[in-house]
Design goal:
Elements lengths: L6 H10 L7 H13 L11 H28 L10 E5 L3 E4 L2 H7 L3 H10 L4 H6 L4 E3 L3 H15 L4 E6 L3 E9 L2 E8 L9 E12 L2 E6 L5 E6 L2 E13 L6 E10 L6 H5 L3 H13 L15 H23 L8 H4 E6 L6 H12 L4 H11 E4 L10 E3 H7 L1 H21 L4 H7 L2 E2 L5 E3 H8 L2 E4 L2 H9 L3 H7 L4 E3 L6 H7 L2 H11 L21 H26 L8 E6 L8 H17 L2 H5 L4 E6 L7 H18 L8 E6 L4 H7 L5 E4 L11 H7 L3 E5 L4 H8 L4 E4 L3 H13 L6 H11 L10 H5 L10 H20 L1 H13 L6 H13 L5
Parallel strand pairs: 1-4, 1-12, 4-11, 12-13, 13-17, 17-18, 19-20, 19-22, 20-21, 22-23, 23-24
Antiparallel strand pairs: 2-3, 5-6, 7-10, 8-9, 10-11, 14-16, 15-16
Helix pairs in contact: 2-3, 2-5, 4-20, 7-34, 12-13, 12-15, 14-15, 22-33, 23-25, 23-30
The structure holds 2-deoxy-2-fluoro-1-O-phosphono-alpha-D-glucopyranose (2 copies).
One 2-deoxy-2-fluoro-1-O-phosphono-alpha-D-glucopyranose binds next to helix 7.
């Protein structure tokens, strides 16, 4: 219970609340103060890391002040003027990257901090480099969550994120002998200044045990879950500053801790070791982020993570709601909860359990509240990614939740039966329970049934989910439940922070930095696209960014590349559906072609640097072979003196958010070449184009909407269309279609040992041999090569290319995450800005 400060002491509180200044002197003072107190160091034993830490603590102080202001004065219920409806974004991944530069830019404090640190003998760029990425995510889904938090804060929405504080983030990737090795990412080695431990906020999370029935005073049958194990969830808050506003929102990350009380049974029986063991087991729950991208693992520990997180988050939300004494029926008017993928779907039975078992509501009322509260975002249609939990495992870990899921299913199927009598097949197709051996729970179906809105992440993807995985639900629930929310990215990090020179140039041209909060203003650049002087300024910055990447490549791989070459980039998780394999096969084709050319022909060639980056899931054998192949091809090509700068192949190790910030601004072209219909959206495509790059891509995900905005002179689209894919697969499979001859020739080069021991790559080659090729590389290879030639041709015309580059940036207004978040706020969450 928080008490108001009595009026006598209020004066004292006010007197001693002296806000710190934002001038250089005050900033330098606070850095020195943190050096000598927080770090207990002195100028005599300082280094860049210490400088970073002290500066970070100084910035953190400012964020906390804004955080308090936002949470307590603006939204905090007891001080407040308003008690607005809030949105809670539940995401098992938040790929935040570094915080310091972001915070400085958000608060407009980069300049005084640069000066203050300079006076103390540091270079701010060096200090920023000392920060370790917060890498609590795999790829697109986690980075999307981070962009959305940035927009929610910037647009002044009352929002919170809830996640898990993994002790180990996504592994660090080392390349040894061309192969990926994984190193654990123990990112909390040093103190993390960007989180506020709130050890007082802790929630008990039950597991296992059994359910008993009893009659309440009204003679109603009620259920009581008696847990077999209880783990403590402790809160760590990470402030998320809005850009050019003091609004600072929060992500609450939960960490598992042993319960405060020892298990008395063990203690009394004198089994001290056993008691300690159990305590340690509790800490395991949040120790590691599962490194599987688009692949479901049926491990009990993963299920435990999900429930642990959902239970703690929901109880925190419910506690906050209960402070106002509103009736339960108003819960959905105060609270919107977004399920980021199916990972948090256990929140559905958990809310039902609280409302029915603990609060004594009738089932129907509880269900009504539940469905009005939740929204669900689907991010993939890949079957191997769709979560299904085995019924026996659920029953063991969460016996009451399983009962509730069965009841939800029963009532749902009853309503379906009423509307569609005698349609047994329909009942089986929409059932939450899959009649597999053992039975399993289809989490996506549960999420669809329990949410008032279900959305995909790009127009094509939202259509595909309606046509395929959720098609029967259109019939049963009606089309209105389904909607599209095309993804977006924050221009603050992906333009202003990653590409400061370009951001400054744009501001100079447009007269202000307003475009960073209203991205469609970029359109104002279009009229200069043809202006020779502006083109020069624009391309000079591109060149500078390419030099910056050239240095990073040299430093991380030892490879020297020429910044005048065309930089062709594909960075993302390594996955068969994303077809990095096709890219490297295309590179081999290019190499073979170059080798056959005479000197005169080579003169006409556009030199190209093909850049890859991305992690493969540790158990994903084929994806890891793709990495090996890229490195083997690079080894051969890069050392071929005869070819020189005409072609270079680079694999940048340990791709992460901060590396992306260097890579993306340096692109001339980026590749987004998934088999049509497999990449739900993609978001890096948006980042590359925003930074003045063209796209080489398939007619998939958000590529299509980018094409609609930037026009076909700025994008090279190729390949099969999604509506053809199924037929093509069938044909490939059963008709013995011969492999594309150019592809055949490339495979031959691998098999004859041009790139080292061929047997290593056999399993990879087998994935595309006749009768297989699920991702249709052979089908698309011809048009892929043609598009690559078109790219070369276009790049030769420097002036036209500069114009295209400017138009790319100018036309990206739609892809701001601000636009996406406003759509969610209006159509799904029904929340207002504060
Ligand atoms: C409470 C108070 C807030 C305070 C936070 C700190 O919020 O003013 O900033 O605790 O955790 F109301 P709730 O989490 O209870 O909303
Ligand atoms: C998934 C999808 C992407 C999509 C993101 C964000 O990404 O197409 O852009 O979610 O919606 F596959 P990953 O988490 O799998 O990278």
């Amino acid at each position: 219970e928080l008490a108001q400060v009595p009026s006598e002491q209020k004066a004292a509180w006010e007197k001693y609340t002296v806000p710190e200044g934002n001038d250089v002197d005050s900033i330098a003072r606070s850095i020195v103060h943190h050096t000598t107190t927080t770090l207990a160091r002195t100028p005599y034993n300082m280094d860049d890391f210490g400088g970073y830490q002290a500066t970070a603590h100084s910035v953190r102080d400012k964020l906390i002040q804004d955080w308090n202001e936002t949470q307590q004065v603006r939204y905090g219920w007891y001080h407040t003027i308003k008690d607005p409806k809030r949105v809670y974004y539940l995401s098992l991944e938040f790929l935040l990257g570094r915080a310091m530069d972001n915070a400085l830019l958000a608060r407009g404090l980069k300049e005084p901090y640069t000066e203050a640190t300079k006076q103390l003998g540091f270079k701010i760029e060096d200090l920023l480099e000392e920060e370790r990425d917060a890498a609590l995510g795999n790829g697109g889904l986690g980075r999307l969550a981070a962009c959305y938090m940035d927009s929610l804060a910037t647009l002044d929405y009352p929002a919170w994120g809830y996640g898990l504080r993994y002790t180990y983030g996504i592994f660090q990737q080392k390349i040894v002998d061309g192969y990926q090795n994984e190193v654990p990412d123990y990112w909390l080695t040093y103190d993390n200044p960007w989180e506020l431990p709130r050890l007082d906020i802790s929630i008990e999370v039950p597991f296992y045990g059994h359910v008993s029935k009893y009659s309440d005073e009204n003679g109603r049958t009620r259920h009581k879950w008696e847990a077999g194990e209880i783990v403590q969830a402790v809160a760590y808050d990470v402030p998320i500053p809005g850009f050019d506003t003091n609004n600072t929102i929060n992500i609450r990350f939960w960490s598992s801790k042993p319960r405060k009380e020892f298990d008395l049974a063990y203690f009394n029986s004198g089994d001290y070791n056993r008691a300690v063991e159990d305590q340690k087991k509790a800490e395991n729950i949040t120790s590691v982020l599962y490194p599987n991208d688009n692949h479901m693992v049926g491990k009990e520990l993963r299920l435990k993570q999900q429930y642990f997180w959902v239970c703690a988050s929901l109880h925190d939300i419910l506690r906050r709601f209960k402070k106002t004494d509103r009736p339960w029926s108003e819960f959905p008017d105060q609270v919107a909860i977004q399920l980021n993928d199916t990972h948090p779907t256990l929140a559905v039975p958990e809310l039902m359990r609280v409302l029915v078992d603990l609060e004594g509501l009738e089932w129907d009322e509880a269900w009504n509240i539940t469905t009005r509260t939740f929204g669900f975002t689907n991010h993939t249609v890949l079957p191997e990614a769709l979560e299904k939990w085995s019924v026996p495992m659920l029953e063991h870990l969460l016996p009451r939740h399983l009962q509730i899921i069965f009841d939800i299913n029963l009532y749902f199927l009853q309503t379906v039966e009423k509307s569609f009598p005698n349609d047994r097949d329909l009942l089986a197709t929409v059932s939450i329970i899959e009649e597999s051996q053992p039975q399993s729970v289809r989490m996506a179906f549960l999420a669809v049934i329990a949410s008032h809105k279900v959305n995909g992440v790009a127009a094509l993807h939202s259509q595909i989910i309606k046509d395929t995985i959720f098609a029967p639900f259109i019939k049963v629930l009606g089309p209105d439940r389904f909607t599209n929310k095309t993804n977006g990215i924050t221009p603050r990090r992906w333009l202003h922070q990653a590409n400061p020179d370009l951001s400054n140039l744009i501001a100079k041209k447009l007269g202000s930095f307003k475009f960073l909060k209203e991205l469609s203003l970029l359109d104002g650049l279009s009229k200069y696209a043809n202006d020779a002087a502006f083109q020069k300024e624009w391309m000079d910055i591109k060149y500078k960014n390419k030099v910056r990447l050239t240095n990073l490549i040299k430093e991380r791989t030892g490879i020297e590349v020429n910044p005048n070459a065309l930089f062709d980039i594909q960075v993302k998780r390594i996955h068969e559906y994303k077809r990095q394999f096709m890219n490297i096969l295309g590179v081999i084709h290019r190499y073979a072609k170059l080798k056959k050319m005479n000197a005169a022909q080579r003169k006409e060639v556009v030199p190209r640097v093909v850049i890859f980056g991305g992690k493969a899931a540790p158990g994903y054998y084929i994806a890891k072979l793709v990495i090996k192949l890229i490195n083997s091809v690079g080894e051969k090509v890069n050392n071929d003196k005869d070819i020189g700068d005409l072609l270079k192949v680079v694999f940048i190790p340990d791709y992460n958010v901060s590396v992306a910030e260097v890579i993306i601004p340096a692109n001339d072209i980026s590749q987004h070449i998934s088999t049509a219909g497999t990449e739900a959206s993609g978001t890096s495509n948006m980042k590359f184009v925003l930074n003045g790059g063209l796209i080489l891509g398939t007619v998939d995900g958000a590529n299509i909407e980018i094409y609609e905005e930037i026009g076909d002179d700025q994008i090279f689209l190729f390949g099969a269309r999604s509506e053809q894919v199924e037929d093509l697969r069938h044909v490939q499979r059963y008709r013995n279609v011969p492999m594309n001859p150019e592809l055949q020739a490339v495979i031959h080069l691998i098999e004859n040992g041009t790139f080292g021991e061929p047997h290593i790559f056999q399993p990879l080659i087998n994935t595309i041999t006749v009768g297989k090729d699920y991702y249709l590389i052979s089908v698309d290879f011809g048009s892929y090569l043609e598009s690559n030639d078109l790219v070369d041709e276009a790049f030769k015309d420097k002036k036209a290319w500069a114009q295209k580059s400017i138009l790319c940036t100018a036309r990206m207004g739609k892809f701001s995450s601000d636009r996406a978040i406003k759509e969610y706020a209006e159509d799904i969450w029904n929340i207002d800005v504060s």
